[in-house]
Design brief:
This protein has 685 residues and is of the alpha+beta class. It contains 18 helices and 37 strands. α5 packs across α6. InterPro entries: ACX-like_C, ATPase_NBD, Hydant_A_N, Hydantoinase_A, Oxoprolinase-like.
Length: 685
């Protein structure tokens, strides 16, 4: 019994999978922003009741969290002290000397305060060079006095990031020993542990961010584990990493910076699985929840992995799935500007409490979900009858928008949806058109509580078909957590020209990294049969500023040999990515080893309804607003659609965890995997 838990801004989604019977159960409970563990505990109780099991029967709990992200975005992290090499106290202030505009950006930029203030930064007398050689010995006496002064000032965590510590961490470890002996209660992060790579600012800000969210994450995970224990859950808790892998709760507590994009990772993982099962190799992941929408691109059945991301203004150089987020969701609030009298939607959100007006929890401002209710796209009841919507309240709220700009309530609601769709369309264009990709070559996987409501409209705007609505779209991110594998990356900066390089030095360093990877797999208790280790080199042409990652065959690492084949691959990859190959020397920048631990797949069974007539799946008819007019639209029970069933639009297809809007001039068909595939009639058979 494996349980996936996805805490969103509006709902907490849970999906339970029984590996023995291959059955799944799903549940949604309101999120509790004041203490997310309360909503998680309520969800665990609910889904165990549905499955008829005891919480003690759970074998594994997999959790995606936005705690680290929210702490950075809201500026509510811990007070972090910072030790740097003397003379580099302004590293976080200088950053990359970047401003939003080329000419006057420095004038208009509201520069954020660093995550570690200058008052909490101390310069340590020491110095290493880029080869790891000691240029200036560590002044232990002065360093001890500076540490006592800083740690006694009330800091909650301490970061140690010295020059070139990636090449030789001896001085960082010496400072750690001093702190551990004199201030054992203060958590410490070493940049040589968190990010042993060159580029001083990236290494420092990433390590500081780790400490900035570390006490908060530790408290949160402690609360979650306490709540689970109170619910009699004995299963181990694992946290989803930003790159879609898994890590133990203890590892997440020590290195929370690896969870800054934990939330969206599950949906991307599930989209990859859908691509592989359906044979649709090019897909756009479209995850629309209550607060935000996350989009990503899948090419050849593989996600795009980025070596860095941004959380607000701050970069974090950690492996992440390449996801773009916009502040548009079902709870995004619509309002009319007092100055321009124009309609705006988001990024403000009604959240879980009070939520949209139609939720009946005290919300007064109209949201995107309310517009869907007004137009008849959302049924009067949700969650299988567990939640009743206030239709009249939604109409009154949206009508105020209409009155302010001179539109009927229907046209105001349609305008709200159109603007929300345009915001989400912008994010989809960023990951396709702006990267030279034609969205018409892609299908779209719609998930999240509100994704299937809007996906057909977005596909019509972009021309990307089919729209794939999975069997459990509302809890697909939680399903992705169940399908995630254990993963961790080990890296070593090793800057050398490949001209005349001793390849043996590369292979020996790979083996040292592999030993660390194996030790980590042992810590995670991954079975030997489930383990995987892969190798790659970061290479670039000499004088380039950025690298290209090239895979290295395992037999080459074990057997040794020349680097010629790897360099040939680099030229090919560089030409494929950038359209050019240069006849200049290639430079080695870093070695990477990725350790993985496979988890059992989640085999979902397609609908077992045999040869049922789609007309028998009609639950009722309700008025809905399409093409500028009201008409009676059938509401279809998705659970009664068999494989091969075809539904003609317009229609509203309902299920426990979401509602799918099928537009006029489109049809939906159930494939052999139980997915709904939406196509325009013009492309149909």
């Amino acid at each position: 019994m494996r349980l996936g838990v996805d805490v969103g801004g509006t709902f907490t989604d849970l999906l339970l999978h029984d590996e023995t019977t291959q059955r799944t159960w799903q549940a949604k409970t309101p999120s509790t922003p004041e203490d997310q563990s309360i909503g998680v505990a309520a969800g665990v109780r609910l889904i165990c009741e549905k499955a008829g099991i005891s919480p003690s029967d759970l074998a594994l709990v997999l959790h995606g969290t936005t705690v680290a992200t929210n702490a950075v975005l809201e500026g509510k992290g811990a007070r972090v002290g910072l030790l740097v090499t003397e003379g580099f106290e302004y590293t976080l202030h200088l950053a990359k000397s970047w401003t939003p505009g080329p000419l006057f950006g420095w004038i208009v930029m509201d520069k954020p305060d660093p995550l570690a203030s200058l008052a909490d930064t101390r310069g340590i007398p020491e110095r290493m060079n880029a080869r790891g050689e000691v240029v200036r010995e560590l002044d232990v006496e002065t360093a001890t006095a500076l540490i006592d002064d800083l740690c006694g000032s009330g800091i909650e965590a301490l970061t140690i990031s010295l020059m070139h510590s990636y090449a030789n961490p001896a001085h960082e470890r010496a400072l750690l020993d001093i702190v551990a002996s004199r201030w054992p209660d203060i958590p410490v992060s070493l940049s040589s542990d968190i990010l042993p790579e060159f580029r001083e600012y990236d290494r420092t800000i990433t390590t500081v961010m780790n400490d900035y969210v570390r006490p908060i994450m530790k408290r949160y995970l402690s609360r979650i584990e306490d709540r689970l224990e109170q619910e009699k859950v004995a299963a181990k808790l694992h946290i989803v990493r930003s790159d879609g892998g898994l890590m133990s709760a203890q590892a997440a507590s020590d290195r929370p910076v690896h969870t800054v994009l934990s939330g969206p990772a599950g949906g991307v993982t599930s989209t990859v699985m859908i691509a592989r099962r359906t044979g649709l190799s090019k897909l756009l992941a479209f995850d629309m929840g209550g607060t935000s929408t996350d989009v990503s691109v899948i090419i050849d059945g593989e996600p795009t992995i980025s070596r860095s991301t941004e959380v607000g203004y701050f970069p974090a150089k950690v492996p992440t799935l390449d996801v773009r987020s916009v502040g548009a969701g079902g709870g995004s609030i619509a309002e009319v500007s007092d100055l321009t009298k124009s309609l705006r939607v988001g990024p403000r959100s009604a959240g879980a409490r009070p939520g949209p007006v139609s939720y009946g929890r005290g919300g007064t401002e109209p949201a995107v979900s309310d517009a869907n209710v007004v137009l008849g796209y959302l049924p009067p009841v949700l969650l299988g009858g567990d939640m009743t919507l206030d239709v009249e309240g939604a109409r009154k709220a949206v009508s105020k928008i209409g009155e302010a700009i001179g539109l009927s309530v229907e046209d105001a609601a349609k305008g709200i949806l159109d603007i929300a769709n345009e915001v989400m369309l912008g994010a989809l264009r960023v990951i396709t058109v702006q990267r030279g990709l034609d969205p018409r070559d892609f299908g779209m996987v719609a998930f999240g509580g509100a994704g299937p409501l809007h996906a057909n409209a977005l596909a019509e705007l972009l021309g990307c078909y089919p729209v794939v609505v999975p069997a459990n779209p509302g809890v697909l991110s939680a399903l992705g957590f169940l399908e995630a594998e254990f993963k961790n990356e080990f890296v070593q900066t090793f800057i050398r020209s490949t001209r005349g390089i001793d390849a043996g030095a590369v292979w020996s360093r790979f083996k040292e990294l592999r030993a660390k990877a194996v030790a980590w797999l042992d810590e995670q208790e991954v079975e030997a049969a489930d383990r995987g280790i892969s190798y790659s080199l970061d290479l670039r042409y000499e004088q380039q500023g950025f690298e290209v990652s090239v895979d290295v065959p395992a037999d080459l690492v074990d057997g040794g040999g020349a680097l010629d084949g790897v360099l040939d691959t680099f030229h090919t990859v560089h030409e494929r990515l950038y359209g050019v190959r240069f006849h200049v020397p290639v430079e080695l920048v870093a070695l990477r080893v990725v350790a993985t631990g496979a988890t059992p797949p989640v085999d979902e069974h397609p609908p077992v309804v045999a040869n049922a007539d789609p007309k028998d799946a009609v639950m009722e008819t309700h008025p809905a607003y399409f093409d500028g007019a009201w008409s009676d639209i059938p509401h279809i029970d998705r659970n009664k659609l068999s494989v091969g069933a075809r539904v003609e639009g317009p229609a509203i297809i309902r299920q426990y965890d979401t509602t799918t809007v099928l537009l006029p001039r489109h049809y939906a068909e159930v494939d052999v995997h139980g997915n709904l595939l939406i196509w325009p009639v013009s492309k149909g058979n």
